[in-house]
C-alpha cells in the first residue's frame, strides 16, 4: 500500500466542510457563527506512533489503514508531525540498524515533542530489557539529546525524564507544562494555544469562582485560574493529577484546589448524595461558582453531570466531538443559550475537530 499524501492545497476546502458541519449541528440552538482557528498545514502534530515492520534485515516505520493490520504503509518522514519528530526519525532508525541490542524485538516507536523543542522517545519491545539495553539506550539518549523510555511486558525503564516540558503563550504570559508519557496531551500545540486564548477571553475577568471538570494536566486550569477568585478542579487520572499539581507549583498558581474525583463522583458530592474522603478538607459551601468549565472525553458529559452544569449561570465547554456536544446542548437548551462558538482545527486532513461554546442562562 502506498503512503498517504497530505495535500496542503485541500486544506481550505476540508476546513470549510468542518465549518458547515458544525453550523448544521448547532443550528437548532440559534448559535452564532463560529470563530474559526486554523491549523498550520504541516508539522503541527506533536505526537506520533509507528509500528516497526521488518523486511529482510531492515525495520521500517509503518502505519496501517483502519481494519488492516497486514499491509504496512512505510514512512521515512511524516510531514504532519513536528519538525523535531522528522529530525529524529532518520537518526533513530540509523541507531537501531547499527545496534542489534536496540533493534532486537523492537516493534513500536512513539514520539512525544513540544513547541519548545523538548522530546521523549518510547521504544517498545517483545522481550525483557537488561543492562546491555540500558547502556545502549543511555548512549542514544545522550547522542540525540532526548529522554528515552523502554517498555516491555511488566517493565518500564526511564532514561532521563518520563515527561516533556512545554511552554505555551496565553494573553502575554508564558505557562510551563509537564506532559507525561502515556497521558493525554493536546496533539496540535499551535491550535492548543489558540484554544487556551479563546477560553481565557470567553471566561473574562471575574470576581467569583470556577468549577472545572476533566482538568487533565491543568492545560486550561493554569490560564483560567488567573481570571477568577479561586478554582475547584477535578480529574480522575492519577498520572494527570500529579502532572497538574506539578504544573500549578511550577507556575506559582496558588488559588486552585485539585481533587482526584470523576465528574460523576463530584456530581454526587455537590448533590450531597454521599461524602468522599478526598473532599474531607474541602469546604464546598465556601465556593461562589459563577461558571463551570468542562472538557470531557469524546462521549461528552453523562446526563447527571450535564444536569449538574445546568445550575451554573455560565457553562464554558470545549469538545473533541461536536455530535456529543450538540446532544449535551440539547439537554441544556431550555435553560441556557449559546452566546459564543468556536471551531479549532486540531486534526487537519481528518473529519475530527474541536469546538468550543459558551452557554449562558436565558
TrEMBL record:
Residue positions of the active site: 320 (nucleophile), 320, 354 (proton acceptor)
Listed CDD domains: AdoMet_MTases
Alphabetic keyword roster: Methyltransferase, S-adenosyl-L-methionine, Transferase, tRNA processing
EC code(s) of this entry: 2.1.1.35
Catalytic activity: uridine(341) in tmRNA + S-adenosyl-L-methionine = 5-methyluridine(341) in tmRNA + S-adenosyl-L-homocysteine + H(+); uridine(54) in tRNA + S-adenosyl-L-methionine = 5-methyluridine(54) in tRNA + S-adenosyl-L-homocysteine + H(+)
Organism: Pseudomonas cuatrocienegasensis
InterPro entries reported for this sequence: MeTrfase_TrmA_AS, MeTrfase_TrmA_CS, SAM-dependent_MTases_sf, TrmA_MeTrfase, U5_MeTrfase_fam
Homology family: Belongs to the class I-like SAM-binding methyltransferase superfamily. RNA M5U methyltransferase family. TrmA subfamily.
PROSITE patterns: SAM_MT_RNA_M5U, TRMA_1, TRMA_2
Residues involved in S-adenosyl-L-methionine binding: 186, 214, 219, 235, 295
Coiled coil: none
Function: Dual-specificity methyltransferase that catalyzes the formation of 5-methyluridine at position 54 (m5U54) in all tRNAs, and that of position 341 (m5U341) in tmRNA (transfer-mRNA).
UniProt protein name: tRNA/tmRNA (uracil-C(5))-methyltransferase
Keyword set includes S-adenosyl-L-methionine: yes
UniProt xrefs under SUPFAM superfamilies: S-adenosyl-L-methionine-dependent methyltransferases
NCBIfam families per record: trmA_only
Amino acid at each position: 500500500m502506498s503512503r498517504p499524501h497530505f495535500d496542503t492545497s485541500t486544506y481550505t476546502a476540508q476546513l470549510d466542510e468542518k465549518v458547515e458541519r458544525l453550523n448544521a449541528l448547532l443550528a437548532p440552538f440559534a448559535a452564532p457563527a463560529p470563530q474559526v482557528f486554523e491549523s498550520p498545514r504541516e508539522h503541527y502534530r506533536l505526537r506520533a506512533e509507528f509500528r516497526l515492520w521488518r523486511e529482510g534485515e531492515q525495520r521500517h516505520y509503518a502505519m496501517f489503514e483502519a481494519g488492516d493490520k497486514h499491509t504496512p504503509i512505510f514512512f521515512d518522514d511524516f510531514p504532519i508531525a513536528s519538525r523535531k519528530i522528522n529530525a529524529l526519525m532518520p537518526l533513530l532508525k540509523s541507531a537501531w540498524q547499527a545496534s542489534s541490542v536496540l533493534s532486537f524485538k523492537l516493534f513500536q516507536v512513539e514520539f512525544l515533542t513540544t513547541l519548545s523543542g523538548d522530546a521523549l522517545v518510547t521504544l517498545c519491545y517483545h522481550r525483557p530489557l537488561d543492562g546491555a539495553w540500558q547502556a545502549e539506550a543511555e548512549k542514544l539518549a545522550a547522542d540525540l539529546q532526548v529522554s528515552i523510555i523502554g517498555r516491555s511486558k511488566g517493565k518500564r525503564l526511564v532514561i532521563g525524564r518520563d515527561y516533556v516540558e512545554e511552554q505555551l503563550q496565553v494573553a502575554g504570559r508564558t505557562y510551563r507544562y509537564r506532559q507525561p508519557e502515556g497521558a493525554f496531551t493536546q496533539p496540535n500545540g499551535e491550535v492548543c494555544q489558540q484554544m487556551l486564548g479563546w477560553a481565557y477571553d470567553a471566561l473574562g475577568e471575574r470576581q467569583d469562582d470556577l468549577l472545572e471538570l476533566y482538568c487533565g494536566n491543568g492545560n486550561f486550569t493554569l490560564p483560567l485560574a488567573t481570571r477568577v477568585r479561586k478554582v475547584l478542579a477535578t480529574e480522575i487520572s492519577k498520572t494527570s493529577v500529579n502532572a497538574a499539581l506539578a504544573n500549578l507549583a511550577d507556575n506559582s498558581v496558588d488559588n486552585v484546589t485539585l481533587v482526584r474525583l470523576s465528574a460523576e463522583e463530584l456530581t454526587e458530592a455537590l448533590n450531597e448524595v454521599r461524602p468522599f474522603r478526598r473532599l474531607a478538607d474541602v469546604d464546598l459551601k465556601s465556593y461562589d461558582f459563577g461558571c463551570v468549565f468542562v472538557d470531557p472525553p469524546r462521549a461528552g458529559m453523562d446526563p447527571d453531570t450535564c444536569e449538574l452544569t445546568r445550575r451554573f449561570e455560565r457553562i464554558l465547554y470545549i469538545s473533541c466531538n461536536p455530535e456529543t456536544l450538540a446532544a449535551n446542548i440539547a439537554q441544556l437548551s431550555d435553560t441556557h443559550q449559546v452566546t459564543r462558538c468556536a471551531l479549532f482545527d486540531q486534526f487537519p486532513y481528518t473529519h475530527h475537530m474541536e469546538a468550543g461554546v459558551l452557554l449562558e442562562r436565558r
